[in-house]
Specification:
Elements (H helix, E strand, L loop, with lengths): L10 H24 L10 H28 L11 H31 L7 E2 L3 E2 L10 H34 L3 H4 L4
Helix pairs in contact: 1-2, 2-3, 3-4
Length: 183
C-alpha cells in the first residue's frame, strides 16, 4: 500500500471523472467538426446535431450530479510535497473547469431553443425538449448563446489541455497525485 492510498479518490469519484472525461472529449470532437457537415435533405447533419445535443444534455445532468456529489464528498487533500503554487493553480483550474462544464450544456440548450427555426433539442433524435416558455425565437439571444457556447468550448479545451499536462507531469514525477484518479 502506497503512502498516497489514503489520499485517493473514491471509486464513484473516479468513475464520474473518467465517464465525464470521455463524454466531454467525444462531444468536443463532434462539436468542432459537425458544423462542417453539408446541409441538405440527404445530409446526416441534423441527426449529428441532435445526437450532440442529446449527449450534451446527458453530460449536463452528470455534471450537476457530480458537482452535488462532490459537495457532499470533498476531494482528498493533495500530498504535502505538492508545492503551494500548484495547489492554488489546481484549485483555480478545477473551478474554471466546473464553470465551463456548467455553461456548455446550458448555453447549447438555450441557443437551440432561441434559434429562429426553433430547432430545440430532440433527445435521441425523437423526443423534443423545445421550450416555448423561453419566449420563442430570438436571433440576438441565439447569437449570444451560440457565441458563448463556441468561446467556452475553446476555453474548456485549453483547461482540459492544462489538466492533462498536469496529470502527465504528476505521472512522470512521483506518480502519487496521478494514481489518485486511477481505478
Amino acid at each position: 500500500m502506497s503512502r498516497h492510498d489514503s489520499l485517493k479518490y473514491t471509486p464513484r469519484a473516479i468513475a464520474l471523472h473518467w465517464l465525464l472525461a470521455l463524454l466531454i472529449l467525444c462531444l468536443m470532437m463532434v462539436g468542432f467538426t459537425m458544423t462542417d457537415l453539408p446541409k441538405g435533405p440527404d445530409s446526416p447533419r441534423g441527426m449529428v446535431f441532435n445526437w450532440h445535443k442529446t449527449f450534451g444534455m446527458i453530460a449536463g445532468l452528470l455534471i450537476l450530479y457530480r458537482y452535488w456529489w462532490r459537495s457532499k464528498n470533498p476531494p482528498p487533500i493533495l500530498p504535502p510535497e505538492v508545492p503551494q503554487w500548484e495547489v492554488r493553480l489546481a484549485n483555480v483550474s478545477h473551478r474554471l473547469l466546473y464553470l465551463c462544464m456548467f455553461v456548455m450544456p446550458l448555453s447549447g440548450y438555450l441557443a437551440s431553443n432561441f434559434h429562429p427555426k426553433q430547432y430545440g433539442v430532440k433527445l435521441f433524435n425523437s423526443e423534443s425538449l423545445k421550450m416555448e416558455a423561453w419566449g420563442g425565437p430570438n436571433e440576438q439571444l441565439h447569437e449570444l448563446l451560440s457565441g458563448t457556447h463556441y468561446i467556452v468550448a475553446y476555453i474548456l479545451a485549453a483547461l482540459i489541455t492544462l489538466h492533462v499536462v498536469a496529470a502527465f507531469k504528476h505521472m512522470l514525477g512521483d506518480g502519487g497525485v496521478f494514481r489518485r484518479m486511477i481505478p
